[in-house]
Predict the structure.
Amino acid sequence: MSYYQVPIGPQHPAIKEAFQFNFILDGEVIVDVKPRLGFVHRGIEKGMELRTWTQGIFLAERICGICNVPHTTCYCLAVEKIYGIEVPERAKYLRIIINELNRIHSHLLWIGVLGMELGFHTLFMYVWRDRERVMDLVEMISGNRVTPSMNCIGGVVYDITPEMIPVIRRNLDYLEERTKYYKSVLEEDPTIRARTVDVGVLSTGKALDLCAVGPVARASNVKSDVRFDDPYTLYDTINFNLITYDTCDVWGRAMVRVDETLESINAIRQALDKMRPGPINVKVKRIPPVGEANARVEAPRGELLHYVKSDGKETPYRAKMRTPTLANIPSLCEMLKGYYIADIPAIVASIDPCYCCTERVMFIDPNKGEKWTWSYDELRNYSRKYYGVGV
Amino acid sequence: MDLAFTLIRIFIFPGLLFLSILAFLFEWIDRKAYARFQNRIGPLYAGPSGILQPIADFIKLMGKEDITPKYVDALIFNNAPIFAVAIPFFASLYLPLDGSPILTSFEGDIVLLLTLMTLYTIVAFIAGWASTNRFSTVGAARAVLQFLAYEIPMFISVASVAVYVGSTSLTYISMNQPVPMILLQPIGFIVFVISMQAELERIPFDIPEAESEIVAGWLTEYCGPKLAFLRFAEDLKLVFCSGLATALFLAGGSGPILPPLVWFVLKMIFVVLLSSYIRSLFARFRIDQMVSGCWKYLIPLSILQLILTRFVGVGLRWL
Amino acid sequence: MAMIREVFRHLFKHPVTVKYPFERTPTAERYRGKHEFYVDRCVGCGLCARECPALAIELVPSDKNVNGRIPIFYLDRCIFCAQCERICPRAAIHLTKFYELASHDRKTLLYRAV
Amino acid sequence: MSTFNMEFIVKDLMNAFPNKILDYKFDGARSVFISIDSGILHDVIRYLKDRYDLKHIVTITGTDLLDSIELIYHLSPLDRRILVNVKVKVSRDNPHIPSVVSLLPGAVLYEREVHDLLGVVFDGHPSLERLILPDDWPEGVYPLRKDYKVEVK
């Protein structure tokens, strides 16, 4: 039986980000998968060591374009643990609100992308139209649709003023109604079910062995959500239930994400009710004491861990971040075996890959054949001379 | 004098020029309706509300560099677009646009038209195979696989109309339908529209060029003028298929006060809108689901329609 | 298939997309766009240049204040995080709601207030 | 043993591996750093895995401490309630440590990442190829080591 190898990526119109999977095929059926990452690896961990603590927040935020709020929350939580400070209660609720808004925005984005991968462009258009409501809310609160940069070490930067609350509530009601409609579409539409039910199956045992995280694990009946198990920023005072499905397939992951969006909506409502007026951040010294800490946050794609180590200097000694997508890659390779080429986009999309999360690249120049590193000054002067800007 | 008149008829008025304008118009209607179904505006800037957008795309593609990849079977690769445009053009000449066919009409010209459409799929296959690119070979294989699935129900539903009206000449059928066949043979019309959607390779049957899996299927290696011609061929096929549907099921040019040509184009636009509506309702099927779906559902339905026509139809003949 | 009614209803709804250059969707009050620099308020402390995560602010000599330097802003490198606005002791920097910064030449993206 | 408390685990480890546990430090209510001698890494992980069901490895963090390389294995149980971080030191010039992929299959990518960026060799790892760095990255140059200078302003 002859196999032939179809490389999908690193540049492929269906896959938004640069990663490469070598699929060993037997006809149209996938026999084996070999991932090759590293195409958008940007050396952020090394970059963190060159930036001051506050500048690190903005770098952490640019790890991923979609789930940037959890990255800043996790980084600030870890650094606050080193400082040993307690964030004011209102700031904690504001963090819950902005995190859950980010989860809704990320999940709706993913449902649209699933529609696009399955060739259902209308669903993509509708879902992304409704997602604009969440983006407008984030813009209203923080001033920027995509990178709110809401967190700072010691609390939150932007506050929710009383006249914003009715606008938020009205938009949440609209979003709830639309998400319920999309849930019914995902449940009833025969073409979607034909392409997603029993596709990319990941058994519960395999999900546990390969340490899958987030909706991928929860769709294989693994009860793991950092907001419940290891609550941070007052998640324990919000009662909302942990969604799991036992269908273990792409459809199950879709339903987990849709239900989680509904849960996030009423989590925001509870946070809005429980919020009391008060300070939104605490002033901190510029340099934290010596020490190390790690913090975990439930990003839309799964459990996210930040580990930070300080040696009393202006810049962190070591900052490590493990993004959920990296944890899901072994499970993804497991899921792909035995399915058709046509299922690849649906299965790959089902773990909601965020490859710029997983990657951090170094600066080298292959065509000159050698590697050299530049200081920031040289980099900036080079770019200025190159563009002839006022030097 | 008579020769000049027929030449004008073939090349200018209801012939090639008019058909090309119709092709661009239908693409605009299709894109505008598809956008409105998705709550978007659709083409907007080129010409009044974007009506010149298809022509703008065509000219832009014509202006691009014409690349023939090295390892490609140049002879077939370069000539495939020409065949792809010629086939729908030639087939559309048989449509009874203004009551009488553009070129001629003879007994059995339906069979010719359907074989021309089969020929188009063969052209698509050899074009995909000739471009030796992995994605296009998979796309070409899928095009032929899909062709096996939708051809049979399409032929049977056309046959049941021919059996009912008692002739296999397109003009005769479209002229002497007592009542538009869509009313008499609804199942046949549904089967025809679905297989037409598959023939035009539109969602939910655009598997041969499914961009999320195999880039652009058999079109992957084409760019520049060749791609412009292939896109233009697809628009022409849309014109031809909607014309065929109109002539067979919607009683061609006959209609109360308006001249037959206007009626014919209006009905074609209705069929295009219907196809665009279907396009916005479905996700793409997988190739094995599509083939099994056609064999399990479409063929029995079309055979049922044939049986109904044979027995029930005759009873209604005196209508 | 399940969206038959919904899709048909949309045929008669007004499209949500906007004809951009002719119509614009309003931006929020707190939108962080192009900087606005009040030369008279600035004392040339240089806090903004030090704090900027993207190193997009540079201090150039000028006679406008006692420390003899004022910041200039490289908008093509700036990430519009408004950290300079927060850190400035004299509120000399404010990010306006202007966001149309696309240009053919990066020199136009160098915002030099004076 | 649903409500783990951290002191109990540390004490249990202490008497299970007498004087091999170097020191420990609590990091918040549900997380602890435990430094151990690199020789007993496998036994400690197997012990934690069997007794406390710590099957989920979150990640492996490598840090260059100039005199040695420190590896932290962040482990957490199936219901993710707590974080036990096992710290191990490895010599800097030829860092070798047994791979834990046999115990925790999920660690296969993390070990390749640490190998790429810090040069730690995990003996027994099924396929220790390059994961992140580009193919033409020179051998022996490990970006996350402190001696890899990217000068700063």
